[in-house]
Amino acid sequence: MTAVPVTPLATNQDLDPVALRQAFGVFPSGVVAVAAEVDDELVGLAASSFTSVSLDPPLVSFSVANTSKTWPTLRRASHLGVTILADHHGAVCRQLAGPVAHRFDGVAATTTADGATTLDDGLARFDCTVYHELEAGDHTIVLLQLHAVEQADTSQPLVFHRSRFQSITGGLG
Ligand SMILES: Cc1cc2nc3c(=O)[nH]c(=O)nc-3n(C[C@H](O)[C@H](O)[C@H](O)COP(=O)(O)O)c2cc1C
Q1: Which of 5, 127, 143, 166 could bridge across to 148 with cysteines, CB 3.0–4.6 Å?
Q2: Contact indicator for 160, 28 with CB cutoff of 8 Å
Q3: Residue 69 Cα: closest atom of ligand 1
Q4: CATH number of 30-154
Q5: CA-CA distance, 39 to 70, in Å (whole number)?
Q6: How remote is the CA of residue 4 from the centroid of ligand 1, in Å?
Q7: What is the DSSP string of the chain?
Protein backbone atom coordinates (compact mmCIF):
# COMPACT_ATOMS: atom_id res chain seq x y z
CA MET A 1 0.00 0.00 0.00
CA THR A 2 1.37 3.44 -0.91
CA ALA A 3 1.44 5.93 1.96
CA VAL A 4 -0.42 9.16 1.24
CA PRO A 5 1.90 12.10 2.03
CA VAL A 6 0.53 14.22 4.89
CA THR A 7 1.79 17.76 5.35
CA PRO A 8 2.49 18.87 8.93
CA LEU A 9 -0.13 21.04 10.60
CA ALA A 10 0.78 24.70 10.13
CA THR A 11 1.32 26.54 13.42
CA ASN A 12 0.02 30.01 14.31
CA GLN A 13 -2.93 29.76 11.95
CA ASP A 14 -5.55 32.44 12.04
CA LEU A 15 -8.35 30.21 13.37
CA ASP A 16 -11.20 31.61 11.37
CA PRO A 17 -14.59 30.84 13.04
CA VAL A 18 -16.11 29.55 9.78
CA ALA A 19 -13.29 27.02 9.31
CA LEU A 20 -13.48 26.10 13.01
CA ARG A 21 -17.24 25.54 12.85
CA GLN A 22 -16.69 23.22 9.86
CA ALA A 23 -13.94 21.30 11.63
CA PHE A 24 -15.99 20.99 14.85
CA GLY A 25 -18.91 19.76 12.72
CA VAL A 26 -16.91 16.69 11.67
CA PHE A 27 -17.44 15.40 15.22
CA PRO A 28 -20.92 13.83 15.44
CA SER A 29 -23.04 14.50 18.49
CA GLY A 30 -26.47 13.78 19.87
CA VAL A 31 -28.90 16.59 20.54
CA VAL A 32 -30.80 17.40 23.73
CA ALA A 33 -33.63 19.71 24.72
CA VAL A 34 -32.88 21.73 27.86
CA ALA A 35 -36.14 23.11 29.21
CA ALA A 36 -38.05 24.34 32.24
CA GLU A 37 -41.12 26.25 33.27
CA VAL A 38 -40.18 29.74 34.43
CA ASP A 39 -42.77 32.36 35.41
CA ASP A 40 -45.53 30.05 34.07
CA GLU A 41 -43.91 29.86 30.60
CA LEU A 42 -42.05 26.96 28.99
CA VAL A 43 -38.54 28.02 28.05
CA GLY A 44 -35.87 25.92 26.43
CA LEU A 45 -33.41 25.35 23.63
CA ALA A 46 -31.80 22.61 21.57
CA ALA A 47 -28.16 21.80 22.36
CA SER A 48 -25.70 19.48 20.63
CA SER A 49 -22.93 20.29 23.11
CA PHE A 50 -24.37 17.89 25.71
CA THR A 51 -22.01 15.33 27.20
CA SER A 52 -21.90 13.02 30.18
CA VAL A 53 -19.32 14.10 32.78
CA SER A 54 -19.40 12.22 36.10
CA LEU A 55 -21.12 9.26 37.76
CA ASP A 56 -20.46 10.31 41.37
CA PRO A 57 -21.81 12.88 41.73
CA PRO A 58 -23.93 12.38 38.62
CA LEU A 59 -23.10 15.27 36.29
CA VAL A 60 -23.67 16.17 32.66
CA SER A 61 -22.75 19.34 30.80
CA PHE A 62 -23.68 21.46 27.84
CA SER A 63 -22.30 24.73 26.50
CA VAL A 64 -24.50 27.70 25.91
CA ALA A 65 -23.58 30.68 23.73
CA ASN A 66 -23.13 33.90 25.69
CA THR A 67 -25.47 35.52 23.17
CA SER A 68 -28.34 33.21 24.23
CA LYS A 69 -31.44 35.18 25.14
CA THR A 70 -33.02 32.07 26.68
CA TRP A 71 -30.28 30.98 29.09
CA PRO A 72 -30.57 33.98 31.48
CA THR A 73 -34.24 32.99 32.01
CA LEU A 74 -33.73 29.22 31.92
CA ARG A 75 -30.95 29.32 34.53
CA ARG A 76 -33.40 30.85 37.03
CA ALA A 77 -35.46 27.62 37.09
CA SER A 78 -34.96 25.66 40.30
CA HIS A 79 -34.80 22.43 38.24
CA LEU A 80 -34.11 21.92 34.52
CA GLY A 81 -35.17 19.05 32.30
CA VAL A 82 -32.85 17.49 29.73
CA THR A 83 -34.26 15.19 27.05
CA ILE A 84 -32.12 13.19 24.63
CA LEU A 85 -33.79 13.59 21.25
CA ALA A 86 -34.70 10.66 19.02
CA ASP A 87 -34.11 10.44 15.27
CA HIS A 88 -37.72 11.48 14.59
CA HIS A 89 -37.12 14.80 16.37
CA GLY A 90 -35.46 16.73 13.51
CA ALA A 91 -38.35 19.17 13.12
CA VAL A 92 -38.81 19.47 16.90
CA CYS A 93 -35.11 20.25 17.24
CA ARG A 94 -35.31 23.04 14.65
CA GLN A 95 -38.38 24.37 16.44
CA LEU A 96 -36.53 24.35 19.78
CA ALA A 97 -33.80 26.45 18.16
CA GLY A 98 -36.23 28.79 16.39
CA PRO A 99 -38.51 31.66 17.41
CA VAL A 100 -38.94 31.60 21.19
CA ALA A 101 -42.73 32.05 21.13
CA HIS A 102 -43.25 28.82 19.16
CA ARG A 103 -40.58 26.48 20.57
CA PHE A 104 -43.10 24.23 22.35
CA ASP A 105 -46.00 24.44 19.86
CA GLY A 106 -47.41 20.93 19.45
CA VAL A 107 -44.58 19.41 21.50
CA ALA A 108 -45.78 16.87 24.08
CA ALA A 109 -43.92 17.80 27.26
CA THR A 110 -44.25 17.22 31.00
CA THR A 111 -43.12 19.51 33.80
CA THR A 112 -42.27 18.39 37.35
CA ALA A 113 -43.42 20.27 40.46
CA ASP A 114 -39.90 21.79 40.53
CA GLY A 115 -40.24 23.11 36.99
CA ALA A 116 -38.09 20.64 35.02
CA THR A 117 -39.62 20.15 31.57
CA THR A 118 -38.91 17.07 29.45
CA LEU A 119 -40.29 15.88 26.11
CA ASP A 120 -42.63 12.90 26.43
CA ASP A 121 -41.11 10.94 23.53
CA GLY A 122 -37.39 11.43 24.14
CA LEU A 123 -34.86 8.61 24.44
CA ALA A 124 -33.88 9.53 28.00
CA ARG A 125 -34.96 12.24 30.40
CA PHE A 126 -33.03 13.86 33.24
CA ASP A 127 -34.14 16.07 36.11
CA CYS A 128 -31.25 18.45 36.87
CA THR A 129 -30.08 21.45 38.85
CA VAL A 130 -27.26 23.79 37.86
CA TYR A 131 -24.09 22.57 39.63
CA HIS A 132 -21.59 25.04 38.19
CA GLU A 133 -21.21 27.51 35.33
CA LEU A 134 -17.78 28.04 33.82
CA GLU A 135 -16.97 30.88 31.44
CA ALA A 136 -15.38 29.46 28.30
CA GLY A 137 -14.75 32.03 25.59
CA ASP A 138 -17.93 32.94 23.77
CA HIS A 139 -19.79 30.10 25.55
CA THR A 140 -20.51 29.11 29.14
CA ILE A 141 -20.04 25.47 30.14
CA VAL A 142 -22.99 24.52 32.31
CA LEU A 143 -22.52 21.55 34.63
CA LEU A 144 -25.81 20.00 35.65
CA GLN A 145 -26.33 17.65 38.59
CA LEU A 146 -28.82 14.85 37.98
CA HIS A 147 -31.62 14.09 40.45
CA ALA A 148 -33.66 11.64 38.41
CA VAL A 149 -33.17 9.69 35.20
CA GLU A 150 -35.46 7.69 32.98
CA GLN A 151 -34.39 5.83 29.89
CA ALA A 152 -37.72 4.98 28.34
CA ASP A 153 -37.21 4.52 24.65
CA THR A 154 -34.98 2.18 22.68
CA SER A 155 -35.27 3.90 19.29
CA GLN A 156 -32.30 5.63 17.66
CA PRO A 157 -30.87 9.02 18.67
CA LEU A 158 -30.93 12.17 16.56
CA VAL A 159 -27.36 12.76 15.37
CA PHE A 160 -26.03 16.18 14.36
CA HIS A 161 -23.11 15.92 11.93
CA ARG A 162 -21.65 18.45 9.47
CA SER A 163 -24.59 20.79 10.23
CA ARG A 164 -27.13 18.12 9.26
CA PHE A 165 -29.36 15.70 11.08
CA GLN A 166 -28.45 12.05 10.60
CA SER A 167 -29.48 8.79 12.16
CA ILE A 168 -27.42 5.78 13.12
CA THR A 169 -28.02 3.22 10.42
CA GLY A 170 -26.08 0.23 11.63
CA GLY A 171 -23.45 -1.05 14.00
CA LEU A 172 -19.89 -2.03 13.08
CA GLY A 173 -19.90 -4.94 15.48
C1 LIG B 1 -28.79 20.98 16.24
C2 LIG B 1 -28.64 22.23 17.08
C3 LIG B 1 -27.73 22.23 18.12
C4 LIG B 1 -27.56 23.36 18.91
N5 LIG B 1 -26.66 23.33 19.93
C6 LIG B 1 -26.49 24.43 20.70
C7 LIG B 1 -25.58 24.38 21.79
O8 LIG B 1 -24.97 23.37 22.09
N9 LIG B 1 -25.42 25.52 22.52
C10 LIG B 1 -26.10 26.67 22.22
O11 LIG B 1 -25.90 27.67 22.91
N12 LIG B 1 -26.98 26.73 21.20
C13 LIG B 1 -27.20 25.62 20.45
N14 LIG B 1 -28.10 25.67 19.43
C15 LIG B 1 -28.89 26.89 19.22
C16 LIG B 1 -30.00 27.01 20.27
O17 LIG B 1 -30.91 25.93 20.18
C18 LIG B 1 -30.78 28.33 20.09
O19 LIG B 1 -31.16 28.49 18.76
C20 LIG B 1 -29.90 29.49 20.46
O21 LIG B 1 -29.62 29.37 21.85
C22 LIG B 1 -30.55 30.86 20.20
O23 LIG B 1 -31.74 30.99 20.92
P24 LIG B 1 -31.81 31.81 22.29
O25 LIG B 1 -31.26 33.18 22.03
O26 LIG B 1 -33.27 31.80 22.65
O27 LIG B 1 -30.96 31.09 23.31
C28 LIG B 1 -28.30 24.54 18.64
C29 LIG B 1 -29.22 24.53 17.58
C30 LIG B 1 -29.40 23.38 16.82
C31 LIG B 1 -30.40 23.39 15.69
Answers
A1: 127
A2: yes
A3: 25
A4: 2.30.110.10
A5: 13
A6: 38
A7: -PPPP-PPPPSS----HHHHHHHHTTS-EE-EEEEEEETTEEEEEEES--EEEEETTEEEEEEEETT-SSHHHHTTSSSEEEEEPBTT-HHHHHHHTS-GGGTTTT--EEE-TT-BEEETT-SEEEEEEEEEEEEETTEEEEEEEEEEEE----SPBEEEETTEEEE------
Residue 142, burial from CB neighbour count under 10 angstroms (0-12, 13-18, 19+): buried
Report the C-alpha gap between 103 and 85 in whole angstroms.
Answer: 15
**pLDDT tens-place string over residues 115-133:** 999 999 999 999 999 999 9
Reported as a single tens digit per residue, the pLDDT across 61-99 is 999 999 999 999 999 999 999 999 999 999 999 999 999
Q: Cα of 105 to ligand 1 centre, how many Å?
A: 17
